Amino acid sequence: MRGPITPWEYGAKRGHPVSTPYEYLIGCDNILAKIHTRNPSACDKVGGVIIMHIDDLRRFALLWLHKSEEVRADKAHYATNITGDIYNSGWISEMYGYSFAAAEINLRHIIRRDIMIYPGYVPLPRAKYRVFHYGLRFGVGNWSFDKADWRNADVVNTCWAKFPEPPDPATITKQDLDARERDFLSIECGRALNKALYLHHKRRNCPRLDTISSTSKKTDQVSASNKIVSVAQKSRSISRGNIESMDEGRLKTVKRTAASVQPLHRSRRLARSSRMWIIAVWALSIVVFLLVISMFFTEQRRNASRSRVSRSLKAHV
């Protein structure tokens, strides 16, 4: 998304949704439409972005689902020369389901070419595209991007993972204005994807990159140190075997000591926490006791006062 999409800006209204062209939906012009809709002449080759009135959507949505299921089940017509799907696998069944369902209830589309663009395509002059649709491989120079290349990579759950950075726009020196604008949009899309990943990793509270770099350097240093020690040990004579055994025993002692430090600190924290709880319970008990005693003596004083008043009244009588 490069900006907001507002219905009134593009002229959407009841009975006339706005969408973008999908010329490869050739099934609207052949037997596929004749099989799956009673109104094939109303089949619009559109998709990607749909701006539809809510009343139209209410009567349309379930039919869209049914038509998508119908086309997906029609494996006899998966061929590329019928569907335009280069994978022959029914991947665009829901797109045909949309067009056939819209034709069924005679929804005629306002088709706009200035809403969405594929990165790698030459933009229309002065078009302010609101949507990038990166469905196909696109590239600039030696750099390219295709989402299908990343099916087996978990860039979402791997901290700070990202796609290869596109070139700097300043390096684009082509004289052809159309080619330059095309490359600028491709670079913008690639950068936007990496920015989205960066913000996602930041929101996940991934460790800072400099922390990871520092840890990696320390690990490399320890690894190098271990290699040096290993080489030195191999070069020692057999006569130093006893010394090595002693060193190994000391190392085990150190490890045992280090392992016992953490439980020791933990037990001290637990003991300190227990003492605090005991003190708090005692303090609360004392406060409750004093409150009860105070209430008792207050009631005694009230009873004594009532008795004196009663005796005084009897004496006057």
Note down, in words, how this protein is organized:
There is one protein chain. With 317 residues, the chain is mainly alpha-helical. Among the domains are: 7-112, no CATH class; 132-203, no CATH class; 268-301. Helices cover 56% and strands 7% of the residues. It contains eight helices and seven strands; from the N terminus they run αβαβαααβββββααα. The protein has a three-stranded mixed sheet, with helices on one face. α3 (54-73) packs across α5 (93-104). The protein is elongated and about 110 Å long. The termini are far apart. Mean pLDDT is 83; it is low at 235-265. InterPro entries: HPAT-like, HPAT/SRGT1-like. GO terms for molecular function: glycosyltransferase activity. Keywords: Glycosyltransferase, Membrane, Transferase, Transmembrane, Transmembrane helix. It comes from Zea mays (Maize). Residues 11-168 form the Hydroxyproline O-arabinosyltransferase-like domain.
Topology overview:
Layout: H1 7-10, E1 18-21, H2 31-36, E2 46-51, H3 54-73, H4 80-83, H5 93-104, E3 110-111, E4 116-117, E5 131-132, E6 138-140, E7 143-145, H6 177-203, H7 209-235, H8 241-316
Parallel strand pairs: 1-3, 4-5
Antiparallel strand pairs: 1-2, 6-7
Helix pairs in contact: 3-5
Question: How would you characterize the largest beta sheet?
Answer: 3 strands, mixed
Instruction: Supply the helix-strand structural class.
Output: mainly alpha
Shape: elongated
Strand content is: 5-15%
Return the string of H and E elements. Answer: HEHEHHHEEEEEHHH
Unreliable segments of 5+ consecutive residues: 235-265
Q: How far do the termini sit from each other? A: 97 Å
